[in-house]
Amino acid sequence: MVSVQRYWEDPHSLHVGCEKPRAYFIPYKDEQSAIRGIRGESSYLTALSGLWRFRYHDSVESVEQDFLDEGYDASGWDTLSVPSNWQMHGYDRPQYTNVNYPYPCDPPFVPNENPAGVYLRDFTIETLGDREHYLVFEGVDSAFYLWVNGTLAGYSQVSHGTSELNVTRSLKAGRNRIAVMVLKWCDGSYLEDQDMWRLSGIFREVYLLSRERLHIADVFARTSLSDDLSKGELTCEIELAGAARGGVKALLQDPQGGVLHEGSVDIRASGAIAIAIPKPLLWSAEVPSLYRLFLHCGGEVILLKIGFRKVEVRESVVRLNGVALKFKGVNRHDSHPELGHTVPLEHMRRDLLLMKRHNVNAVRTSHYPNDPRFLELCDEVGFYVIDEADLETHGTDPAGDVNMLPKDPQYAEAFLDRMQRLVERDKNHPCVVMWSLGNESGFGENHRTMALWARERDGSRLIHYERVFHPGVYREEAPLAQATAFLDLYSRMYPSIEWIKEFLADPKESRPLLLCEYSHAMGNGPGDLTDYWELFYSEPRLAGGFVWEWTDHAVKTRTPDGIEYYAYGGDFGEQPNDGNFCMDGLVYPDRTPHTGLLELASVIAPVAVRPVDLGSGKIEVTNRYDFVSLAHVALSWHIERDGQSIEAGELAPQAVPPRESWTIQLPYASPQAVEGRLFLILRFRLAEATPWAEKGHTLSLVQLELPGAGVRTKRVPRLQLPRLRAQETEREIAIEGGEFRYRFDKLRGSFTALEYRGLPLLAEPPVVSLWRAPTDNDRYIKAEWRAEGYDRLQTHTYGVELLGKDDRHLRIGWRFSLGGYSRRPVLRAEATWTVYGSGEILFGVRARVREGIPFLPRFGLRLAMPEGYEDVVYFGYGPHESYIDKHRSTWKSRFAATVDGMHEGYLRPQENGSHYATEWASVANAQGVGLLFVGMEDFSFNASHFTPEELTRAGHPFQLDKRRETIIHLDAMMSGLGSNSCGPELLPQYRLSQGEIDFQVRILPAAREEATLLDLVRTRIAE
What we know:
Blueprint: E1 15-16, H1 31-36, E2 45-47, E3 50-57, E4 78-82, E5 95-97, E6 116-125, E7 131-137, E8 140-141, E9 143-148, E10 151-157, E11 163-166, E12 174-183, E13 196-198, E14 201-202, E15 206-212, E16 215-225, E17 231-241, E18 245-253, E19 259-268, E20 270-278, E21 291-297, E22 300-306, E23 311-314, E24 317-320, E25 323-324, E26 327-331, H2 345-357, E27 362-364, H3 372-381, E28 384-388, H4 412-426, E29 432-436, H5 445-457, E30 462-464, H6 480-483, E31 490-493, H7 497-504, E32 513-518, H8 529-538, E33 542-547, E34 555-558, E35 564-567, H9 595-603, E36 607-613, E37 618-623, E38 633-641, E39 644-651, E40 661-665, E41 678-686, E42 698-705, E43 714-717, E44 725-728, E45 732-736, E46 740-745, E47 750-756, E48 759-760, E49 764-769, H10 781-787, E50 794-805, E51 809-819, E52 827-836, E53 841-849, E54 858-865, E55 871-878, E56 891-898, E57 915-924, E58 929-944, H11 948-953, E59 966-974, E60 996-1007, H12 1013-1017, E61 1019-1022
Parallel strand pairs: 26-27, 26-33, 27-28, 28-29, 29-30, 31-32, 32-33, 43-61
Antiparallel strand pairs: 1-10, 2-15, 3-4, 3-6, 5-13, 6-12, 7-11, 7-15, 8-14, 9-10, 9-12, 16-17, 17-20, 18-19, 18-21, 21-22, 23-24, 24-25, 34-35, 36-37, 37-40, 38-39, 38-41, 41-42, 44-45, 45-46, 46-47, 47-48, 49-54, 50-51, 51-52, 52-53, 53-60, 54-59, 55-56, 55-57, 57-58, 58-59, 58-60
Helix pairs in contact: 2-3, 4-5
């Protein structure tokens, strides 16, 4: 084994030979280079990214010393890109685990078989000059030793923090070699049990900084504002290196480039520059005004972008610049489907622009500091950031003591170190409004130490930590409010709506409430956003929340047969693993939005509408921005009659002040005399392009139903219908009319054949169905569903009888039950099938559900149509999937689609593609012949090439075999989605839990080219 001290199991040896943490910045040669900010162009920086020689070892014990020998020939080694994670290149294997440590919980000890990767990189320095040389590693998982030209330069452990080492004495002019040995595990790994893929290596940028002998070692740009925000002051605290004394020139420009201050100061080791700013332009996520501070020292220029803002808790409310804030946030991991934890700059930018376009204003860096450039982007684009320390000890909970490490003195240094490295690196970013002590790490004295240090070092930001408020974590004698007084907010994850209301009524707690995680966006969801935000908007003390989470984590890989797919936990045979719990984002791994992101964007939109008098076109528009008017927002509107636009207009932007409302009258004609279903659709769009979206980008869409003259229904007397013929045998009833032939099976209680104009319309008999492929948010309730047999229901027919018959119609009664083996029936029901001479079928059912059983997934009729029936037209909530608690991003209209186009391909197949509150739907072949389904009341509609059972069985999309048939679901109700994969139970109002269910639906054979669908829908048979 290579001869090194075993720092990796010594919690007191964290950073050997490393510089103390400092603010992130890159020195440049002049101001223009600093403005460009392309750090690879800095004459002081040598980028060391690229291909390195690499050798993987299953254990650090097998690493030999010879790679440190001068002249060692590594040409036979592999090459590996830096930055990267070695598991993404075939070494070791990715492992996804959420809570459990992937090794015995025995801190500070880690497995003896501790994998190690050895990296070698040669580079040339023409001349060392009179400079100090620093090697900077922005992220190495989990610990590393560094040698320069064969000499040990240091050791460091903090995966998501910066490690900087002065290597001046080890370098030489000409060719140099650096060697890095990275360990998969160290004692710090117990503090890095974040819910993520376990990936190792040098995964962030590495570079050499060659600094002037006299240079700025650290800088803290503190801003302050007067109480009335009319005056600001910038105090720039500077530490020098390389000399006891030196001159620093400061140039401050306002956001427009005007010079506000220019001057020089002489600093002895450390000092400060104070600049008064009259009437400062304030920074916010909505108006990210940034001043430029150039610091000249020696030949170096350092640029800091300064934002003036005041973050505080006042009157139990989180305020920015005096205004009560609502964090419309998301949690974000560093995640790339092909690069793992290595996230390129443009990928970060893409994430933020996508968030901005969907009305997100805040990010929690879960659960570690992100790449330092990410915060630069947040400053510029405009986001509020909860910056979180690289700290999570979740695995101690199943190991028996959730507070094991925060109360362990031997880990005190490591806890504090992670807070210090977070604060020192990111202290100059205005986007950071809170420091977070980490995530899910129990509670103990080590946390207090972190918080008190951060408060003393930087009192301008709030301090956040959630886990102490989690039930069962706090175990001290002092009252919770007293013991946690160093925390500015009360923070919780996934509380129910009722819990929040109880919290607000609790006289013992006055702090604002922040939901640092809520509304779990896993799979088809989340479904409870509206309920949270109605409550958030109603109470200033509620500071908003952060949806878990931004993206599905996945590893893009291939099956042995070469099929590309996104892998989740367990797909690499790793143990332990948490399955697809990493697939819980608002976007797919390639950043394609889930419908859940569209829902979030609609719910948190910056413009709200309330009807005042729709008959005359009067509405109230509310500006939900905090700091800007609606002068940048244009309003376009149109009125649809039965899904077709009949009138439209636009309004110029109006400067409605933030948080105020404006009553306007849209100049449309009075709708009272217009027949049909009338809907007003309002689109609020960007009037001009912004740095994050193009002109015309939709910020909000609102639909309101207008009071028209109503819908005229044509009544056709039954006696005027064409004649039909029926022939009954012991087993079936054959029914024929002018253009149709049906066969009804008396044992099944359903049709076995429907033919229209000789075309078969039925591939499988209609059945009453309760099962849906469980969504990820059905994670817990699905066990109860299965226990009651919902997934294995059998229909038992008690009897079928002909209830009425003449030459224009017949009516068949069917009594039946649905039940699973070993259980009593879930329900008993009476149904009628009425067939008319026109070919129309009216199905009606009244079901009585057994008491005391779990709410039903769905209730309705399921049938299959043969191959070729692909064209869908429906009048309901679309154009994408919608559910009772997830339809704010959709609107009710007439939509055309294909069966394939209605499928939402979640990375673990599940219920998808349904449409809430559908009034009618048509499924037809290419010639327009098919079936028309009309609800007597609104129903949930789904057309798919996959059955619920097939979706239930498949673990990945590639495991689905697409059927040629089209599976149709017509549901009286589909239960909602919620977010119970991690959040609270589905709210009662979204559950199908009633004891009696009545449902009626009309089924009509139809040829679209010969009759308009709307005429058929609005033609009723009069008995």
